[in-house]
Design goal:
Radius of gyration of chain B: 14 Å
Number of strands of chain B: 5
Distance between the termini of chain B: 11 Å
Strand content of chain B: 35-45%
Strand order of the largest sheet of chain A: 4-3-2-1-5
Strand order of the largest sheet of chain B: 4-3-2-1-5
Distance between the termini of chain A: 28 Å
Strand content of chain A: 35-45%
Radius of gyration of chain A: 14 Å
Shape of chain B: elongated
Oligomer: heterodimer
Largest interface: A-B, 38 and 30 residues
Structural class of chain B: alpha+beta
Structural class of chain A: mainly beta
Largest sheet of chain A: 5 strands, antiparallel
Chain lengths: ~100, ~90
């Protein structure tokens, strides 16, 4: 009875991962496991700041360890394309404190 | 097991999940698992101006280990039922 919540319906979709240190990484979900370890392809990090628009850093093929993951969000590509990231100003996300 | 069963009964209700990084996300409870990982639909961040990081996300998976609070609808809490379930769990060990 150890069938956890699957991320199966998100495989091959573009997802937005929020990590425990407050980073936002966007990429295509290629694989996952019960510990929520994740394989992300074509990934890039979105760096938010209050002084300039969102910076996008290309990362490539990544494995993110499950114990460092807060949120896995399903990205709506249409909506995301309509966003002008160069205009977004925001404080970086806070790190998780247990 | 108790909270797993309790959350399964709340599927379909609106909840607000507050995380340990102070982010608060409102949405419809879609599903929950044995680790109390939570899947929410129709998500919106509570303070969207402060946290625009999830503007294009409608559904999300929240890892149980990072949840601080789950804010529930008041009529979603049957206190008597929870009391009984708690007593049974305490006895059963």
């Amino acid at each position: 009875m150890s069938s956890g919540l699957g991320l199966e319906n998100l495989v091959d979709q573009t997802i937005s991962v929020i990590t425990n240190d407050g980073r936002n990484i966007v990429g295509i979900l290629k694989g996952f496991d019960q510990a929520t370890n994740i394989i992300l392809d074509e990934s890039h990090e979105r760096v938010y700041s209050t002084k300039e628009g969102v910076q996008q850093l290309v990362l490539g093929l990544y494995i993110i360890r499950g114990d460092n993951i807060s949120i896995v969000g399903e990205l709506d590509e249409e909506l995301d394309a309509s966003l002008d990231l160069s205009l977004l100003r925001a404080h970086p996300l806070k790190p998780v404190i247990h | 097991m108790l909270f797993f069963s309790y959350f399964k009964d709340l599927v379909g209700r609106e909840v607000t999940v507050e995380l340990k990084n102070d982010l608060a996300i409102r949405g419809t409870l879609h599903s929950v698992d044995q680790y109390l990982n939570i899947k929410l639909e129709n998500t919106r961040v509570v303070d969207q101006d402060k946290y625009p990081h999830m503007l294009s996300v409608w559904n999300c998976f929240i890892r149980g280990s990072v949840v601080r609070y789950v804010q529930l609808p008041p009529d979603g809490v049957d206190v008597e039922l929870l009391h009984d379930a708690t007593r049974r769990e305490a006895r059963g060990g």
